[in-house]
Every structure is written in structure tokens, then in C-alpha cells.
User: Which sequence fits this backbone?
């Protein structure tokens, strides 16, 4: 990173962008970056959620700006990054985290429009964000990007073809971006959350009880993760402590993808 500080996990004087910051993992990451001294730009389409995140950070004496941005639309991503450049004059870290699950259907029945939407919001958005973030990061001498994938990027959850395909592709994009930018001192990595107790998962479980039953029973930790436990890995990946970590993923899933079985 272009860090002037030698204190690990210190984001003082850093400008950080978090997408999907109006809820769940993104909100907790935004709070954590702000608590470590960063000026955090929070982007989301959920204005109410953004206002809540802003209020939480402000109450904790953190520095925050909010931006209504649909990260699947190129003009909106481009104007967000222009705004950050104009106002803050730099960007040091980006957590590209906004995402949706889409409905649960077998491949033969998966609605085409839903498939396109999930790919747009989960995959195209990460491409667009990096496209407009990278020039700013490089101009500042380097930085870090973390893209949110999912355990669905390394497994095959039935009923979630669009989600799994989009998240597998996020890992591919992450590795290409890491390769292309390592020499420019921009590190790019991925966060791979497992079952995390956020509004997204609560909505999915209400619609699809099998999702809750099978998902939770597959976790060795016997519980879902808290958004703050998952966000912590993204913050670490973007910190100076992770200065030699590039093109990797950190799986934070309570052991869900260990793939073994317990000894009795
Ligand atoms: P969440 O629903 O609490 O938060 C996601 C946020 O993204 C919401 O505030 C939503 O408004 C925003 N968003 C959706 N579409 C957007 C768009 N087009 N532009 C801008 N913002 C948009 O969910 P979460 O669980 O915190 O999810 C965060 C990320 O973590 C997602 O990428 C998700 O796929 C991933 N993830 C979550 C889990 C989990 O169990 N919760 C597991 C694996 C991966």
C-alpha cells in the first residue's frame, strides 16, 4: 500500500470506498475502516441503509460520505469515482462488496432476466468498480482492493446457478486484476464469506427454508457468522499487514468448506 504509516491496520489519512455499505458485511467493514481512521465513502442503492451507516460512523466520531450508486451501471460508478477524486483527491482502498442472491430455481427453470441481473450486480459491478478505481489507486502510488465472492464461488449450491457463476467469476477477475496490478503496488484479493447473519441471508432463508436448514447444518462452528467477523478479514486484506498477499482469497465460513467430517 501507499502507506505512510507503519502501524498495522492503521488507515489514518486513507480514503476507502465500500460498496454495499448500507447493510450487512459492507456496513461493518465501513465502520471498521472508519474506526481505524479512514475517510470512508459508502455506496449503495439503499438510501435508508446508507443513512444508518453514516449515523453509526458519525456517532463513533468517524469520517464518512455516502453516495447513492447502482454499481451495475457504468455511468454511476464512473461519477462516484470522479466525485471521490474531486473531493478527496485520492483513493487508497476499495472493498467491492455489493451483491444480491437472486431467486432459487433449477437451471432449466431459472428466469433469464434474473440470471442477467445477478450477473450484472455481482460480476459486472466488480469489473466496473475496478475499471474506475485502478487509475486512482495507481496514481496515488498503490493501494488495495478486496472483492467479495462467496463460498458459492468454490462450491455448487443447488438452485443458485446465477449466484454461483457470478461469484466463481469474481475470483477469476480478482486473480487477473492481481496479476495485472502487482507491479503497480495495487494488491487485489477476495473475501469468501460463508453463511453470515445479514438481511440478505435472512430474506433468503424466509423464502427458501431448505437454504436455512441445509446451509446451517453444514457449518462445523454450529452457527452463522456475524457480519463484523467476516468484515474483519476484508479490512485485514486491505491493511499494510497483508502487504505480501496478492490474488488470494480468505474463506471465513465457520469451517463450512472444510469438506471432512467430525471424528466420533
Ligand atoms: P446485504 O443484503 O446485507 O448487503 C448487500 C448490500 O448491497 C445492500 O445494502 C444492497 O442494497 C446493496 N446492493 C445490492 N445491489 C446493489 C447495487 N446494484 N448497487 C449498489 N448496492 C447494491 O448482504 P450481505 O450479506 O452483507 O452481502 C454482502 C456481500 O457478501 C454480497 O456480495 C454477498 O453476495 C456476499 N456474501 C454474503 C453471504 C452471507 O451469508 N450473508 C455469504 C457469502 C457472500
Assistant:
Amino acid at each position: 500500500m501507499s502507506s505512510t504509516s507503519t502501524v498495522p491496520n492503521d488507515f489514518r489519512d486513507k480514503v476507502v470506498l465500500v460498496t454495499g455499505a448500507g447493510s450487512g458485511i459492507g456496513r461493518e467493514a465501513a465502520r471498521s475502516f472508519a474506526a481505524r481512521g479512514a475517510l470512508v465513502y459508502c455506496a449503495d442503492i439503499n438510501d435508508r441503509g446508507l443513512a444508518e451507516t453514516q449515523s453509526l460512523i458519525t456517532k463513533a466520531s468517524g469520517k464518512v460520505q455516502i453516495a447513492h450508486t447502482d454499481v451495475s451501471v457504468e455511468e454511476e460508478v464512473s461519477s462516484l469515482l470522479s466525485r471521490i477524486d474531486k473531493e478527496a483527491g485520492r483513493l487508497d482502498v476499495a472493498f467491492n462488496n455489493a451483491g444480491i442472491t437472486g431467486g432459487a430455481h433449477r437451471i432449466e427453470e431459472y428466469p433469464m432476466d434474473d440470471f442477467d441481473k445477478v450477473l450484472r450486480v455481482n460480476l459486472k459491478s466488480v469489473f466496473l468498480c475496478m475499471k474506475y478505481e485502478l487509475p486512482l489507486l495507481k496514481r496515488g502510488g498503490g493501494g488495495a482492493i478486496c472483492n467479495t465472492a462467496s463460498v458459492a464461488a468454490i462450491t455448487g449450491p443447488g438452485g443458485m446457478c446465477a449466484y454461483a457463476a457470478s461469484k466463481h467469476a469474481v475470483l477469476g477477475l480478482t486473480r487477473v486484476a492481481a496479476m495485472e496490478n502487482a507491479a503497480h503496488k495495487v494488491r487485489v484479493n477476495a473475501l469468501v464469506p460463508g453463511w453470515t447473519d445479514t438481511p440478505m441471508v435472512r430474506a433468503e432463508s424466509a423464502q427458501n427454508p431448505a437454504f436455512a436448514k441445509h446451509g446451517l447444518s453444514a457449518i462445523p462452528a454450529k452457527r452463522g457468522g456475524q457480519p463484523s467477523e467476516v468484515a474483519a478479514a476484508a479490512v485485514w486484506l486491505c491493511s499494510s499487514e497483508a502487504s505480501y498477499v496478492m490474488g488470494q482469497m480468505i474463506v471465513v465460513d465457520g469451517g463450512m468448506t472444510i469438506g471432512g467430517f467430525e471424528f466420533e
Remarks:
- The first strand starts at residue 15 and ends at 19.
- The domain at 15-252 is CATH 3.40.50.720 (Rossmann fold).
